[in-house]
Design brief:
The protein is of the alpha/beta class. The chain has 3 domains: 135 residues, no CATH class; 56 residues, 2-Layer Sandwich (Alpha-Beta Plaits), CATH 3.30.70.1170; 189 residues, Vaccinia Virus protein VP39 (Rossmann fold, 3-Layer(aba) Sandwich). Helix content is 44%, strand content 15%. It has 20 helices and 11 strands. The protein has a 7-stranded mixed β-sheet with strand order 7-6-5-8-9-11-10, sandwiched between helices. It has a 4-stranded antiparallel β-sheet with strand order 2-3-1-4, covered by helices on one side. Helix 15 links the parallel strand 6 and strand 7. The protein is globular, with a radius of gyration of 24 Å. The termini are far apart.
């Protein structure tokens, strides 16, 4: 099990402010009772407490993420009924305090001097930690998800799960329209941001330790974006060139669209599509900061937008909606909010997007189907089904997988498909007279 660095715990112990702990407990209530996501909850807490220093912010954020990541395990350590840990009606503030108290005992070996938890039995918590329990409890995830992982990934699942339970490193991507990685690395060092280059990922820089970077002059100047090293390899996999017409059909806030623009030397056209206007608004803001002007954003209001774009793109990126299981290190509450029913909804949607959106690619053009999932049912299986139905028109050129237990990056999958040059192009519909 991952544990918080002893030094961080020691500093926290020396500065055990009830106010901060109370804020952590309230934040956990927002996450597990009211269903909010950790990052939004933390962001809101920071806005409500602008006088918190950087150390307070760091301690609050890291503690929340650590307890969310190991929620079921700490619930067990607290001696609470295992079946209650994800039932909103059974999760109370009193119980969340007990979970925090168990977390504290597991890290420090003693009960915290706060009245809500000072009577917790340290020896009982430590005894429960030594018990042999169900693997899903020890790995802190729902039973159904553990069973699914074993079913789809077999012998790879235990190592992958251990890696997904560790906090992720922070990677930056250089905005190569303005600066290359080596000079960016030097600039960051001058601002006190320790980092190292990654020889196998040309535009990537890895931070040596977590620290605030968004106030840096390098960020304000648009010299980099925060992006995992696996995610950074999706845009190059699309095999773009300056001057091409590219469609990012599930653009979100546009991390990959921005990378595509850099690879295209800001020449050509990128059409970024998404169903959420607020995400595209964020993309426009990021484009301005980075000096990119070839991205056109369009809100996906209905399927007619896709039909109007049939046979128009040299390249299409489909970073489809997925379970997000490959990025559990960054979004640990995803495993508590995901459900079998949601997966059953996502798989047909992925197949539909691949089938319908692929028609935007010109004959001879290329498409990349990508997810941040590690499940074959969302990845290879979807591509195989598509090719089984459309193999006369498409062929698989290459596919890649990234795994946190093998390369330290997030879990991603990507398949590059080529639309055969001889593909039959349906004639444009004749306008009514």
């Amino acid at each position: 099990m991952h544990s918080t660095p002893p030094r961080a715990i020691a500093e926290f112990a020396l500065n055990l402010h009830r106010h901060l702990i109370s804020q952590i407990v309230d934040a956990l209530a927002d996450i597990f009772i009211y269903g909010y996501y950790s990052d939004k909850v933390i962001e809101r807490r920071f806005k409500l407490h602008p006088k918190w220093g950087s150390r307070d912010r760091k301690q609050v954020a890291e503690t929340i993420y650590e307890i969310v990541r190991w929620w079921r395990w700490h619930w067990h350590l607290a001696g609470l009924p295992d079946g209650d840990c994800l039932i909103k009606e059974k999760i109370t503030l009193e119980r969340i305090w007990q979970v925090w108290g168990a977390y504290w005992i597991s890290k420090t070996g003693s009960a915290a001097s706060l009245y809500e938890v000072e009577r917790m039995d340290v020896e009982a918590v430590q005894a429960r930690a030594a018990e042999i329990v169900a693997p899903a409890i020890r790995a802190s995830l729902p039973d159904w998800l553990n069973d699914l992982g074993k079913k789809e990934l077999g012998h790879e699942w235990p190592d992958l799960l251990r890696a997904l339970n560790r906090p992720a490193d922070v990677f930056l991507r250089a905005n190569t329209l303005k600066i290359q990685t080596k000079p960016l690395s030097i600039n960051l060092e001058k601002e006190g941001i320790e980092n190292k280059l990654l020889p196998d990922v040309p535009d990537a820089i890895q931070l040596v330790k977590r620290q605030s970077i968004f106030a840096s002059s390098a960020f304000r100047a648009g010299l980099f974006e925060v992006q995992d090293a696996a995610s950074q390899q999706i845009a190059p996999f699309l095999d773009v060139a300056p001057g091409q017409r590219v469609i990012d059909a599930c653009a979100g806030a546009g991390g990959k669209a921005l990378h595509l623009a850099c690879l295209m030397k800001n020449k050509g056209k990128i059409v970024a599509l998404d169903i959420h206007e607020w995400k595209l608004k964020e993309l426009r803001k990021r484009s301005t900061r980075q000096g990119i002007d070839i991205i056109e954003t369009r809100v996906m209001e209905d399927i007619r937008i896709i039909k109007r774009l049939h046979n128009t793109a040299d390249r299409v990126l489909l970073d489809v909606p997925c379970s997000g299981l490959g990025v559990l290190r960054r979004n640990p509450d995803c495993k508590w909010k995901l459900s079998p029913e949601e997966l059953d909804r996502l798989r047909p949607l992925q197949a539909e997007i691949l089938r319908d959106y692929s028609k935007m690619v010109k004959p001879g053009g290329k498409l990349v189907y990508a997810t941040c999932s590690v499940l074959p049912s969302e990845n290879e299986d979807q591509v195989k089904k598509f090719l089984a139905e459309h193999g006369d028109e498409w062929k698989l050129e290459e596919e890649r997988r990234w795994r946190p237990h093998s390369n330290g990056f997030d879990g991603f999958y990507a398949a590059r498909l080529v639309r055969k040059a001889a593909a039959v192009v349906a004639p444009a519909p004749v306008a009514a007279v």
